[in-house]
Amino acid sequence: MPRLVLAVAATAVLAGCASAPMSSRSTAMATQFDSVRVTEHRGSDDLLTAGLGLSGLRAMTPPAFADPAAPTPAELRRRAVWANWRGIADLAPGGGYGEVYGSLAVVPGQEFHAFARVPGAHQPHRIAVQVPDAFDQAARCIVVAPASGSRGVLGAIAVAAPWALPKGCAVAYTDKGAGTDYFDLDAGLGVRADGTVGAPADGLAFVPDPASGRGVAVKHAHSRDNPEADWGVHVKQAAEFALQALDRAFPQAAPFAFDNTTVIAVGISNGGGAVLRAAEADGDDWLDAVVAGAPNITVAGARPLYDYTTEAALLMPCALPVLGIPPMPTAAAQCAALADAGLVSGDTLEARQRSAYDTLRASGWTDAALRAGSISVGFDLWRAVAVTYASAYGRFGVAEHPCGHTFSALTAEGAPRPATGAERAAWFADGSGIPPGAGVGIVAPTGDPDAPLKELQCLRGMWDGQGADAGRVRTGIEALTARTPRAGLPVIVVHGLDDGLIPTAFTSARYVAAAQAAGADVRHWQVRNVQHFDAFLGLPAYGAHYLPLLPYIYEALDRTWAHLHDGAPMPADAVIATTPRGAGNALKASDLAMPE
């Protein structure tokens, strides 16, 4: 793809040119941005909801493609917006979105998309910037929002855009080197810059090495880059691209630079960990504030994600009945297998359940985290995370997984098969970045009837076992350890005390304690009756018992903005005593008990 200097063909790029790169002049990093695309979103389309509005986002079926095998870039974007909103926010009637908290205002403007690359990386990552037509040139602001989980580039749209776009701020996104750019190994096809399917010669977002074989290559698992180690760099590069996008959108007000534009980073889950990594002292004060929600952050001396995930995959199905949670159909067999492997004790099912529960409690799990973690058991999420992250941390390529796992489209009986054209065409919009989902499943190694836990024990062994593969995985995890935020940088960490996927005891509590002990300006909101997945609150039992996290993220952004622009004090640490709304009740503002 040709590389053009920044000043060339600006008018053509604003009209939709897809090839002109941009290099940063705001920092010494000089990041190169390739495959730049600019699209306009007005009239029946907009930046915040792609023209869907609340009713369209609430629809149970995704926006349709006119041709399922060949959707247009506009159709793919609209469907990706729908999927990412529904994957993050509670949009169900009575949940309060758009009424008690959050905005779904129509926001016209432009989107800038590009590829960037971390120095030394094998693969590029996606970045995008939304620039509202009503961008406030007098109070220049960028909100950087890395995707949660392994989601695509617009994965944090529900986290940042409802707060930032109506305020007149630009929003910069990054997929953090993960995302939904899957590659079909059977067909030799992947995802172009515009989301459509193409061949490697088309300049794809991800081409694995090797780009052949059977099944599906997933960027987070197969890039060989361990992208989590560079999360902070991904966030900064998105901010750099935003400055360049603003220069192009408003040339009469250029230059936009870190010293004349407020930059706030906000994220949840993996995105929350990414913004905390961006906050680290690196000799550059480009960032003005950080809001991190439910952050997946690795702290020296604390348990990393891979450790407690693989433990949960083994023990939690057996342990949950101790809390009165109905067992999964395979729970009794798993308890028996754990006993045979010497991982739990007891001669009866009840004794083995108690042993598994006691082991989890002794390793730091709270009852609240275990209760909320039960939904990850139901969705087989613990195993899914372990499979992808073992490959990423060890920098394993296609067909190199240390436990023999691969990804593929599956038959009704669960056997691997080639993907259809329609399935492949929808991956960019429908995928979450981590199988199973969007028609891509996990293909486990052939089971051993005499060792039913062999698969999970192999995944666990990548953390506590021996051998070269385990050493590679642990080396990758060591590269994730967070450092103290830059001195004077205001940071608010918000976390639900009932989080069962990223428990506070292993992550934010340890991070905040270490940061505050080092003198960092970090504030901590711990919220009772809040778990990890707002999107699950549409389930009646969950909505009755748990409250959403997003209102506290938006409130933390309000407090941060008031501090930066009006000199208001940052909020104090708080343990927020919320009130569950109960079955059949709509959420009220008083239920949230926002700190004074």
Summarize the helices and strands and which ones pair or pack.
Blueprint: H1 10-14, E1 22-23, E2 32-41, H2 53-58, H3 73-88, E3 109-116, E4 125-132, E5 141-146, H4 157-164, E6 170-174, E7 183-184, E8 190-191, E9 197-198, E10 216-217, H5 219-222, H6 231-249, E11 262-268, H7 270-278, E12 289-293, H8 305-319, H9 331-340, H10 349-362, H11 367-378, H12 381-393, E13 406-410, E14 416-417, H13 421-430, E15 441-443, H14 454-464, H15 468-478, E16 491-496, H16 508-517, E17 522-527, H17 540-545, H18 550-566, E18 574-576, H19 589-592
Parallel strand pairs: 5-6, 5-11, 11-12, 12-16, 16-17, 17-18
Antiparallel strand pairs: 1-2, 2-3, 3-4, 4-6, 7-10, 8-9, 13-14, 13-15
Percentage of residues in strands:
5-15%
Uncertain ranges: 1-29
Q: Could you say which overall geometry the principal axes of the C-alpha atoms support? A: globular
C-alpha termini separation: 54 Å
Q: Strand order, biggest sheet? A: 1-2-3-4-6-5-11-12-16-17-18
Structure description:
The chain contains 19 helices and 18 strands. Strands 1-2-3-4-6-5-11-12-16-17-18 form an 11-stranded mixed beta sheet, with helices on both faces. Helix 3 packs across helix 13 and helix 8 packs across helix 11. The longest helix has 19 residues. The N terminus is likely disordered.
